[in-house]
Structure formats: structure tokens, C-alpha cells
Amino acid sequence: MYQYDAIDQQLVEERVAQFRDQTRRYLNKELSDQEFLPLRLQNGLYVQRYAPMLRIAIPYGMLSSTQLRKLADISCRYDRSYGHFSTRQNLQLNWPKIEDVPDILAELAEVQMHAVQTSGNCIRNTTTDQYAGVISDEIVDPRPYCELIRQWSTFHPEFAFLPRKFKIAVNATESADRAATQVHDIGLHIKKNEAGEIGFKVIVGGGLGRTPMVGVTISEFIPRMDLLTYLDAIIRVYNQQGRRDNKYKARIKILVKALGIEEFRSRVEAEWQHLRGKESTVPMSEFERLQSFFSEPNYAVLENNPASLTNKLADSAGFARWFERNTFEHKKAGYRIVTLTLKKAGQAPGDATAEQMHKAADLADQFSFGELRVSHEQNLVLADVRQDQLVELWDAAKEAGFATPTLGLLTDMICCPGGDFCALANAKSIPIAAQIQETFNDLDYLYDLGNIDLNISGCMNACGHHHVGNIGILGVDKKGEEFYQISIGGASGHDASIGKILGPSFAQEEISSVIQKLMNVYVENRYEDERFIDTYRRVGITPFKEAAYAKAN
Amino acid sequence: MPKLIKNGDIIDNPYNWLQDAGQEVTANSIVAAQKWLTEKDTIGNIAGIWLEAGDGVEFLQGVDLNQFDVIGVHFPAFTDGRGFSYARLLRERLNYQGEIRALGNFIPDQLGYLLRVGFNGFQFNENVDLEKALLLYKSFSVAYQGDVSEPRPLFLRR
């Protein structure tokens, strides 16, 4: 993974010093609440319902075991010994003290980490596929490009006070989009043109929140050397012309929609003509420098399907289940990608205790070259596990609560922290997740249902991505009471779509029975091996709606 | 006389920022750009013009900007970042060489970014302690991106 040099290190240290001084002036009342607000947000610090929340960046999801141990350690000394992995490859601490945050940031800097621009109206942490670099059908490894974008966006002097937040995600394979790139302000799809040159298809104006939209293509191919000047052009147009009179209409998607993609594209092109070929054009030497950090680890020469694996697959249904659901094909023979799920019943989705973080770090050292990834689905990934060590890893993962064999299934939910923590939330989301986990606890049934994305957000800000869940649950406030609106038909992959609202919202205790009714409709209507989303697309919303609102006989 | 920060020093402010269209125009005035545009043949000598957020810089294409000693950029709120792009375009696209002065509700903690996009004059609101603001003049000694003072990104210098 990327290693800081003296300059990268100096930058994060200077940032810590700057924020230490800002915090001191705030606590001395030299900075007002209003002035401190964007300064703290650009260092990841929110003020939440009960306490501040600190969002730490895990750039494009890459984490070393040393860094994860540091996060565990920080959560013990400054917080309540756990953290929450978010959908955008960040880690959130829910209970730090404001006056401790500069010290936390200083400790993060010791392990080349930071909380820079994890919040605020600026360019946020760039995210990508958690399987980057280890899958066989990838066009190229997206991580060097993510690091290029990270450096370009970090302390960008022109774009620190945009109309609204700005999120970029990168995908590098035709076969899947695990980073939900089409619902980002900019989605980048790595491509090769006919001449074999690397570049990007650029998608703009996606986003969730109050006005969910799937992005539209602004350019089919931008050569990689021109990436930064093209991004500068898009964001310069947005910075000047995006709406600033209403925060709910301030995202780039609203500007793109208002102008239409043709007009928006021509404005970006006009701006780009001035920037293209100038100093920010990326030279080959920089691509090579960045790529050098992501060279392959020292893989052993191995065969696929060693006897120790195939024997266990035959002997143990539990292991076979876990292997099928929670591991993924690796580009190297004899290796496998393993997801350590953070979706154990009784634990909030995406939460990990300090003890679990230490355990995951140990497993990374023992089985996967000391590195981990954080996924959009709020799980941890060991990317380089030898197939002949899978049984041993499975045993250890079970013990640590990482082996719930439900990756991609109904109970592998995405869930925001909700009203238990978040000041913005209209309703709690964690109890809904818990209710669904308790109700749908029969593994055979879950397997039979197959791949279903269920996403829960506690308010329309949509941190739990409910719009793009096959089933989406949104917490709403009705005269001071918490209700839940259910939508179906959303998707976040290459076939991204926004879900449709089923109808009037439901009380908390009704949710599981409604989900059960939706599942019954699916099971009755599906063709063999047809996924929930495909059945929905074929039969439409009506049968689901009728079942959900049918009066009991 | 009110003070301002210019090129890293606290100096007396020689100019008068005319926020109100009805105010009398003198040779020391910084006049709203839109007003100047409609009255430029009759307005006489002025120190310079100022841009309101929303003006953009397109309409200054073809104008000899170096006739002005100063171009002001107004920040209606410090979170309104349009002025950052305006200053950069004034320097990099319109080749303006004179003082670019931040006006209005920007705050000392923004000085680093303001300097990098081409501002060199800072007329803070009256409640700001300029001596303390100067302490924040440069919080970072290096930067990844190119900017107005160093167009080459770090990757060309690493």
C-alpha cells in the first residue's frame, strides 16, 4: 500500500498543528461556533446527538494491521472501545471529547492516517472496490489512481468551500461495481481505449439524499494523464455555478439536472480547454511512482483447490457455506479473498469492538501480508489468503464473530448509526437491523432467498444508502413518532437504479413482517435462480404493494 | 485609517470600498464591477473594481485589467467559496498583476488557501485582530497541487 514520504508526513503533521491551534482558539472563544464548524468538519469532527463524532479516513479502504491496531488502541483510550465502519470506507468514533481530537489526530499521523476532508463541503475520501488489485478481470489496479486523486484533493486551495460535499468513487472492472460509483458526485470507470491507453469514463451528478439520482456520462474516455485537469474543470464549473441558496439543492446533481448534461458538458469542456496540457497533466513518472506502492506481495506458487480445502468442503456444511458466501475468487492460483463480516446478530452493522479490531489485525498478519480492506458494505476484507489456510482462518474468524456466512444476503445489511447516535436522524436504524437479524435467522432460508441488498437509513440524508438497496428502509418522523418508509427495486451496481416507495410508512414493530411478505411475493413469483431484483423488475411493484398492505383475514 | 494585510504586512488601507451604489466615486474608490461596466466612460479615475459572488469573471474578458491597482472579491459568507475560483481565474486566465483583495466575511483561517489562489490583500471585517490573523498567514509549508504562486504540482517537483 501507499507509504508516506517526508512530504506526506509533514503535511499531515502541519494539519494536526493547525487543528490543535483552531481547537484551542475555539475552546478559548476566539473562534465562534459558526467559524469552527467548517474547520472541524474538514477534520472529520461532527457534533452529534450525545457527543462529538470523529470520522477517520481509510483512503480507498486500505488499512495495514499496524493502522488497525492504532485505531483499536485509540478507541480504547479516547472512546468506548469500539468503532463503526461506514459505507464510504471511513471509521467513525462515536464518543471522543472535542479537546482530545487534536491528540487523536496526532496519534493517527504516527501511522500515516488522518481525518482530512472526511466531512464538510469539500472533496471527500475517494473510495473504490474492496477487491482492487486481487481480482482477475480488473482492467488495471485502481488504487494508484485513487492515491493520485487523494493527493490532488487534499487541501485543494480552490475547492475547500464548495456548495456542498463532493464524493468521488472509482471502479476498474466491467463485471461489478462494488463502490456504488453511479451514485457519487463523480464516478470514474477505468477503461482502455482501442490503442490500449488507460483512461476513465466519467459519470457525473449521481447522489442520494433528498433527491436521489443515478449519474450520467459526461465523457466516455478521458486519458489518464488528463484526469486531474478534467476533474479541476468539472469542479471549477460546479464551485462557481452550483446553487448556494438552498443546501438541499446544492449538490452537483442538481446543477447537472438543471442545465442538462449537454450544456453542463459544454461548460466543462470550455473550462477544460484552458487547463488541458498544463502543469497538472500527470506525467508517466508519477503513475509509475504510485504504481510501485501497489506491486504484488510475495505470493507463493500454489495450485487451486488443495486437498485440505476440498476435503473440508465435502465434510463440513458450515465451512462450505462460509466458503461459498464469504470468500471470493482471487487472481492468483491457490489464493482466495476473504470477507470478515461485521454483521453478527446482536452487533450493529459495521461496528467492531477494539478486541475485534486487534483480532482482525492479527488475522491480517497471520494470513494476508498484514493488510486489510474496508468495504462499502461495512465489512473487512483479507485480500490474499492461501486456500490451504482457509480452514484455519475460518476457525479463528468464527471465534472472533467475523464468520457469519451471510455476505450479500438479506441480513448483510448496510445501516447508518441512526437515531441512537446521529443528531440528524429522524428515527433509529440499529434496532431495525437487529429486528431483521433476529427474524431472519434461518440460514437455509436466507440462502434460498439469495442475494438481496437491504439498506437502512435513519433519515433522508441517506447515509445507509436506502435508495439503492433492493429493499430500502428509511426512518421518518410522523408527529414525533418514528416510522419507516420501505422502498424496493434499488440497486447500486452497474445496473444502478433508485428504489420506488411501496406506500405509507410502517411502525417499527411491523418491519420484519412486511419484509417477510415481500419475500413471500418474491418466492412465489421467481423463476429458478432469479434474483430478487430481477423478479421485481419483471413483475413490477404491484404484487409487492398488495401483499404489504393486504388486510389480515 | 483602517488597516489591512497586504503582501504579509499590516498597512494603512489607501482605498475606499464602495459597497453602496450611491456613494461618491473618487480616485481612491473600489467600485462594484457591474457599476463600473455601465459607467466606465464617465466614471473617471478609480483605484479598482470589486466582484460580487455570482458575478463570475467571464464578463471581464477583453478588459485591460491592469489599468486597476486593485480588484476586490467579496465573500458574502466565509463558506461561499466562489471567490477562490474568481481570484485564480483573474491571475491565471486574465493575467491580472495588481492587488487581489478579499473583502467581506472571510476569516483568518482561510488565509492559506486564499494566498494560494492569488489573493494578496485582505481587508478583514473590523472585529478581526490583524496581528493574530498574521500568525495564520501560512499554516502549510508544502502542497500537493499547483497553485498561483507555484503552478507545478508536487509530482513535478518530487
Short description:
Chain A is of the alpha+beta class. Chain A is built from 18 helices and 21 strands.
Notes on the structure:
The complex is a heterodimer of chains A (553) and B (158). Chain A has four domains: 105 residues, Alpha-Beta Plaits, CATH 3.30.70; 157 residues, Sulfite Reductase Hemoprotein, domain 1, CATH 3.30.413.10; 94 residues, Sulfite Reductase Hemoprotein, domain 2 (Alpha-Beta Complex), CATH 3.90.480; 136 residues, 2-Layer Sandwich (Sulfite Reductase Hemoprotein, domain 1), CATH 3.30.413.10. Chain A is 37% helix and 18% strand. Chain A has 18 helices and 21 strands. In chain A, the strands form four sheets. In chain A, strands 16, 17, 18, 19, 20 and 21 form a six-stranded mixed sheet that branches. In chain A, strand 1 and strand 2 form a beta hairpin. Chain B has 158 residues and is of the alpha/beta class. Chain B has one domain: Rossmann fold (3-Layer(aba) Sandwich), CATH 3.40.50. Chain B is built from four helices and eight strands, in the order ββββαββαβαβα. Chain B has an eight-stranded mixed sheet with strand order 2-1-8-7-6-5-4-3. In chain B, strand 7, helix 3 and strand 8 form a beta-alpha-beta unit. The termini of chain B are far apart. The chains are: A alpha+beta (553), B alpha/beta (158). The interface between A and B is large, with 42 and 37 residues.
Topology:
The complex is a heterodimer of chains A (553) and B (158).
Chain A lengths: L5 H22 L5 H9 L3 E3 L4 E6 L4 E3 H14 L3 E4 L4 E4 L7 H10 L16 E2 L14 H11 L14 E4 L14 E7 L5 E7 L11 E8 L3 H15 L10 H8 L1 H15 L8 H9 L14 H9 L1 H10 E3 L5 E6 L10 E3 H14 L3 E4 L5 E7 L3 H11 L13 E2 L14 H10 L3 H7 L4 E4 L13 E8 L2 E8 L11 E2 L4 E2 L3 H15 L6 H8 L2 H8 L4
Parallel strand pairs in A: 6-7, 7-8, 16-17, 17-18
Antiparallel strand pairs in A: 1-2, 2-5, 3-14, 4-5, 4-13, 8-9, 9-10, 11-12, 12-15, 14-15, 18-19, 19-20, 19-21
Helix pairs in contact in A: 1-2, 1-4, 3-12, 6-8, 7-8, 10-11, 12-13, 16-18
Chain B lengths: L2 E4 L2 E4 L3 E2 L11 E4 H7 L8 E4 L18 E6 L6 H11 L6 E6 L6 H6 L4 E3 L6 H6 L23
Parallel strand pairs in B: 3-4, 4-5, 5-6, 6-7, 7-8
Antiparallel strand pairs in B: 1-2, 1-8
